[in-house]
Amino acid sequence: MTSEVGSNVDEGAFGNPTAHNLLIMTGQLDYAVDLAERFEREVPSTVNFAFDSAQLDGEAQVTLRRQAAWIRQFPEVRFRVFGNTDLVGSEAYNRGLGLRRARAVVAFLIRNGVSRSRVEAVASNGETQPLIPTQNRERQNRRAVTQVSGFVQDHPLILNGEYALIVHREYVQSATRDPAIP
Questions:
Q1: Do 98 and 85 touch, CB atoms closer than 8 A?
Q2: Regarding beta strands 119-126 and 46-48, do their DSSP bridges make them parallel or antiparallel, or are they unpaired?
Q3: Among 119, 31, 104, which residue's Cα sits nearest to residue 71?
Q4: DSSP string, 46-103
Q5: Is residue 18 classed as helix, strand or coil in its secondary structure?
Q6: Are 73 and 95 in contact (CB under 8 A)?
Q7: Considering only CA atoms, which of 47, 96, 91 is closest in space to residue 67?
Q8: Pairing mode, if any, of strands 77-84 and 143-151?
Q9: Which of the pair, 104 or 2, is modelled with greater confidence?
Q10: Sheet-wide strand order for 143-151
Q11: Radius of gyration of the chain from Cα atoms?
């Protein structure tokens, strides 16, 4: 009998947290990807808009407050906000509207304690990435999506390779039994 992938997690002597740390340190698991997946799991990453609007409604503001609280926990991480529209209207108009939506989200996050240097509205997908392909008005397509984009350069919390090796060496040494001690 076969089981789902991931249904059996070996928590043996090595331990899942240690295995995860080893994957990060050896470059086998990208920390930014890991944080992006965590962000997606823990916080709604999408807010929706009314037709032809970049105004944040109450539901969007609740979601963005949750995003801001999560983002403030990770001062070394950068985020991008992508604005989207439905397929009603010209491509040029929708590209501008999508960018206004992304900028509205960025402005709200900044007002809620996120540093301006860590969040940006870098692009608008306009009407090019609909969730539901229809020529009609579709609320799910009128959205802004917040995503992890990387790390703030030269942030003091980012471990460079040399420091990570020292931390790893000290960690391994702390777990090694000294034969001189009975």
A1: yes
A2: unpaired
A3: 119
A4: EEE--TT-----HHHHHHHHHHHHHHHT-TTEEEEEEEE--SSS-HHHHHHHHHHHHH
A5: helix
A6: no
A7: 47
A8: antiparallel
A9: 104
A10: 46-48, 143-151, 77-84, 119-126
A11: 22
Q: Are strands 46-48 and 143-151 parallel, antiparallel or unpaired?
A: antiparallel
Residue that wins the pLDDT comparison between 142 and 2: 142
The residue whose two tokens read 């003091």 is 156
Query: Among candidates 122, 116, 113, 34, which has minimal Cα distance to 68?
Result: 113
- Tell me the domains of the chain and their CATH numbers: 16-152 (3.30.1330.60)
**Residues in Cβ contact with 82 at an 8 Å cutoff, skipping those fewer than 6 apart:** 98, 102, 121, 122, 123, 124, 125, 144, 145, 147
Give the pLDDT score at 23: 63
Enter the tokens of residue 52: 């032809």
Average pLDDT over residues 101-118: 96
Query: Per-residue pLDDT tens for 87-97?
Result: 888 888 999 99
The predicted model scores a pTM of 0.68
Nearest Cα neighbor of 79 from 55, 50, 43, 132 is 43
Instruction: For residue 26, give both structure tokens.
Output: 């050896």
- β-bridge mates for residue 77, sequence order: 151
